[in-house]
Each structure stands twice: as C-alpha cells, then as structure tokens.
Amino acid sequence: MKRNMELLRTILFEIEELYVDTSIRELRIDGYTKVQIAYHCKLMYEAGLVSEYKPSYSDQGLLTFYVGSLTWKGQDYLEQIRNPETWEKTMKVIKEKKLPKKLDTIAKVAGIFTGNVINELKS
To answer: What does pTM read for this prediction?
Structure first.
C-alpha cells in the first residue's frame, strides 16, 4: 500500500478533534477503508506522530485498531501543515520540484511558507 499524505493529514486533524483521554477505536474517514486508515495510523506511530497504535487481527486480516493521541512531534507537524493554503502550496512545490513526499521534506517546505508569512507580518 502506498503512503497517502493527504490521508495522513486528515487523520491528524481527526485525532486532534476526537481524542479526549482514551485511544480512538477504529477511526473512520469517508472514502477510505479501515485497512487504509489503520496502515496510515501505523506509519504515524512509527514516525512518532501518535502515542500508540494497537491493531487486532484474525485469520481474515485486520479486525480492529486503536490509535492514541498526537505526540508533541505530531502536534508540531500538524501546526506546520494546518493552513489549507500552506498545504496546497507545499504539495505544489513538492510535485513541481519532484521532491520526496517525506514528513521532514513537507515540514521544511511548509516552513518556508509560514516563514514568509512571519516576515510579511514584520514588514
């Protein structure tokens, strides 16, 4: 399965909104399967963006999964990509320059745009 950065971003927003004090069971997002969402939650856990990921399997495959809260790193990453305009510009640059769609690359490119906003505010 390919990594989908749009889905990853959507999951971050969902966790931010839904998480209260216990893991979220079977996070659902329209247009995506449970397996796709679980896979991306697993990737986010491995990258340190979420505090936990607990899947449960049967002979037929994934039964259910739980995902925890955003970590400090997850919160910081979400802040970098929160603004829809920044996200669109970032993904456009990454596509045009044929840069890898990696968390650190996306964060750096998004940081350029947020840095430009800060510089404009100083003027």
So the answer is: 0.88
Q: Which of 66, 64, 63, 18 is nearest to 45 (CA)?
A: 66
Each domain of the chain, given as residue ranges in start order, spans 5-71, 83-122
CA-derived radius of gyration, the chain? 16
Q: Residue 61 above 90 pLDDT?
A: yes
End-to-end CA distance of the chain: 46
Supply the angle between the helices 84-96 and 103-122 in degrees, to the nearest 10.
Answer: 120
Res 28 pLDDT > 70: yes
Burial of 37 per CB tally in 10 Å (0-12, 13-18, 19+):
buried
The secondary structure of 39-107 as a DSSP string is: HHHHHHHHTTSBS-EEEEEETTEEEEEEE--B-HHHHHHHHHH-SHHHHHHHHHHHHHTT----HHHHH
Helix/strand/coil for 33? coil
How far apart, in whole angstroms, are the C-alpha atoms of residue 84 and residue 40? 20
